[in-house]
């Protein structure tokens, strides 16, 4: 199972790559594996400011729909539009081409509440 050390994670299976005050967010390799074949990524919150732990979108797989939760408070500034035509990128490259949103972090103090790779591994039993 792929759990990159340089990323942060949430108990809800989102990963976060922080570069300055910008964070790139997607779902983890574990999450995409549990969901199965992803057929649709629904993000309608671009240009909105969303609080930590609020829903910012959803992922639809063949068997289920799962909400996506904001790992940090901030403004969503970009959606990975390539997922509109190829949502399966989330399955094939969860940490690369399968990223979902970019956001501007407004509460940097919340970064401390995120999990590191070893903390995330404990949650999923890896």
Could you describe the 3D structure shown?
By secondary structure, the chain is of the alpha+beta class. The protein has one domain (8-108): OB fold (Dihydrolipoamide Acetyltransferase, E2P). Helix content is 18%, strand content 35%. The chain has four helices and nine strands. The strands form two sheets. A six-stranded antiparallel beta sheet has the order 1-2-3-9-8-5. Strands 4-6-7 form a three-stranded antiparallel beta sheet. A hairpin with a 2-residue loop joins strand 2 (14-19) and strand 3.
Measured as a percent range, the helix fraction is 10-25%
Number of helices: 4
Give the tally of structural domains.
1
Q: What's the CATH first level?
A: Mainly Beta
H-E order: EEEHEEEEEHHEH
- Can you tell me the residue ranges where pLDDT is under 50 for at least 5 consecutive residues? none
Mean pLDDT: 97
What is the CATH superfamily label? Answer: RNA polymerase II/Efflux pump adaptor protein, barrel-sandwich hybrid domain
- The N- to C-terminal Cα distance equals 8 Å
Q: In angstroms, what is the radius of gyration?
A: 13 Å
The share of residues in extended strands comes to: 25-35%
The quaternary state of the protein chains shown equals: single chain
Q: Which second-level CATH architecture applies?
A: Beta Barrel
What is the molecular shape? Answer: globular
Strand-pairing-aware structural class: alpha+beta
Strand order in the largest sheet = 1-2-3-9-8-5
């Amino acid at each position: 199972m792929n759990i990159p050390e340089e990323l942060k994670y949430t108990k809800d299976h989102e990963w976060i790559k922080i570069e300055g005050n910008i964070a790139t967010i997607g779902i983890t390799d574990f999450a995409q594996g549990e969901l199965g074949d992803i057929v649709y990524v629904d993000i309608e919150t671009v240009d909105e400011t969303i609080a930590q732990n609020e829903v910012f979108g959803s992922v639809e797989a063949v068997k289920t729909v799962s909400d996506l939760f904001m790992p940090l408070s901030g403004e969503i500034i970009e959606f990975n539009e390539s997922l509109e035509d190829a949502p399966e990128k989330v399955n094939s490259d969860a940490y690369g081409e399968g990223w979902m949103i970019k956001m501007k972090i407004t509460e940097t103090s919340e970064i401390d509440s995120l999990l590191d790779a070893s903390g995330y591994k404990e949650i999923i039993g890896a």
